[in-house]
Amino acid sequence: MAAAIVGWVTESVREILQISGLNLQSFLVFCAAFILACFILKPRRNLPPYPAGRVPVLGHLLALGRAPHLKLTAWRRQYGDVFTVRMGMEDVVVLNGYTAVKDALVDRSELFASRPAVYLANAMLGFGKDIDFARWGPEFRQRKKFATAVLKKLGMKIGTGSIEEKIREEASYLRNTIAEYNENPSDIAYDVTVAFANVICSMLMGKRYDYRDETFRELADAVFVAMAEAGAGQIIDVFPLLRFVPV
């Protein structure tokens, strides 16, 4: 696990150097200065205790090992139901047990209603201008109310005018497409993706696409590529200082 993490970090640093045009010495000086500034200027927060095994920059990533769920269970027995894990350079508070979870998510739901600040998602979605990653508050409630009303108008409801008929129709198309494989072993992942997409297209545009439509396949492939690229960039969420590296 440690070798995999080190390899991942090394490869990411190599790509950053190649893109930005910095040499290794300049990059290390920049990182050292930034980390020092973070430790000096970062405000102290009243967080639950940290388990042992935290190291600079990587935090508890090495200590979590190949089975993080087992390590978190062991830390619960040692540190209690609430403790803090350092994921890279970000703090994550871990809740265990019914009482702790209910206290946070039910009894104090207003305080824990917002999603965590994920830099990559915010950069892609406009830093709070969306619904998924917007902070809880009056603006979020207004957007949610508007989105719910629109979705109901488009068919996301029970009873007359719902999209149930569209789903049944698309399920029939999907069944016929799978039947064309004549019981031969086949990967139907793309067909299922088209089925889901066609239900959405029926809601928004009033039309559906054929399962062999080349234009639709190109669009689907482009979405997959974008999701893969976004996933590869998640290192920025673990090591926020990389957002300040040129380019």
TrEMBL record:
Keyword Transmembrane part of the UniProt annotation: yes
Keywords: Iron, Membrane, Metal-binding, Transmembrane, Transmembrane helix
Recorded superkingdom: Eukaryota
Pfam families: p450
Membrane-traversing stretches: 22-41
Biological process (GO), any one: organic acid metabolic process
Family annotation (SUPFAM superfamilies): Cytochrome P450
Coiled coil ranges: none
One Gene Ontology term of the molecular function aspect: iron ion binding
Cofactor or coenzyme needed: heme
InterPro entries: Cyt_P450, Cyt_P450_E_grp-I, Cyt_P450_sf, Cytochrome_P450_fam2
A GO cellular component annotation in the UniProt record: cytoplasm
PANTHER family assigned to the protein according to its UniProt record, in alphabetical order: CYTOCHROME P450 2D6-LIKE, CYTOCHROME P450 508A4-RELATED
Family, similarity comment: Belongs to the cytochrome P450 family.
The protein's name in its UniProt record: Cytochrome P450 2C30-like
Annotated source species: Branchiostoma belcheri (Amphioxus)
